[in-house]
What does this fold into?
Amino acid sequence: MRLLDLDRPEGMTPPRDVSIADGRIAAIGEGLGNPDGARVIEGNANLLMPGLINGHFHSAVNHMKGRLPSLPLEVFMLYECPELDVLRPTPREAYLRTMLGCIEMLKCGTTSVQDDCFFVPRPEPEIVDAVAQAYVDSGMRVRLALDQPEVSELEKLPYLRDLLPTDLRRELGQPSPTSRNELLGLYDHLISRWHGAAGGRIKAAVSCSAPQRVSPEYLGALDQLSRDHDLPFYAHMLETKLQRVFGREHLNGRSLVQYTADLGMLSERMNVIHAIWVDDTDLDLLAESGATVAHNPVSNLRLGSGVMRWRAMQDRNIPICLGVDEAIADDAVNMWSVMKTAALIHCITDWDYELWPNPREILRAATTGGGHAMREPRLGRIEIGAPADLNLIDLGAIAYVPLNDLPRQLVHCEYGTSVLQTMVAGDVIRDGKGLTRVNENALLAEASALFERRLQDMDEADQRMARYLPYYRKMYDLACQQDVGMERRIPQAQPQKNRGLALCPLINAE
It folds into this structure.
């Protein structure tokens, strides 16, 4: 078989053998032979490449794909994760919805994921355990964090306090249902029980959700946990124009990147998620800190957030990984479509075509970039000592016939259908017959029946959140009207005023 090698002009090596021992690549060469009792996988004339790494994901809404129309983030989040008891999952529901994502990722050759998991209405140990257990059972590699805001809704957003009537302002002024100390106790549970489990496949991370969604004290406590255990630290920053406006209105003109840097918490351990509405000062701070940017191009389009500054980040050597974000904002948990979108969307941001992304950059972001973000520097590589997280790709599949340019065809022609085998830590997790560790058909049937019974609860939640919709729309419109000195969207027409917005549940709005 051939090995992916992006440093070679043709993008791959001549035929090679690979030997695996103790979950890692032990040898690479020709005619390595077959150790006694070793399983032999015939690579034939196919391609061995690193498993893809989903650098940013929220597994909690795997069961909601296709449920919402495209909406701006701040309106979308009303319906995505309201803190309502009616949406409280059982441990089995949490397990099944997590497994839905695992099945889809593994079938498409994604072997590792950074799950910035949120919990509605609040995180609980048994739900955390159910999510982690799904990853153990699936065979995937994961970094799992608890994405939970700490402050009230009114403190996270500009303008809203003045727009809301008294009764709704009182409701949204309530603090998060889980206190800082409770959240830190849950992190103790996550780290003590799961960090390093399943032979090191399951590891913890920390998450503040976003700097404006927590207090500086909690942000500092998470940073200390990240430092003590060398954990990735997830923080959404400057995903939308409204978040840029928030900094001007509530952070003395500083952006969220600048605010986090001023607190001394922008570091090489941090994954800055989205980073669309950044200026040159922000990029310089990111480059100086060593932080990774998690780029989610499909989600950014689905929510109308804008286009990230790919080339400006590459020019500053800012590490980039690629992510799906979540099933409800991508509607597929497929890293191949993320790669293709990342390769294309930036082509409309600059007339100089030599500055557009090239497929090798994209492939590196989806493999070694993800390993760097996960604090696993050898992950995403084919080299001696690297974790044996690998995909065998059928080079006889239509995506590669004829084979003109391997890196381009991997990025532009592949959708995961040519993946013959997927391996994690040296174990074949998916082969030609399907997933090897779980009964996919039984799990899908159970999930289908279970979540169909939950549709009424989700509809009820939509109806309750619709009370806030006109005020969130006004907040969004006010932010859109502000001049923030940059544009990350492609203007086509002036926005129409007073178009009228249906206040029925968005599940039925088109």
In short: The longest helix spans residues 91-107.
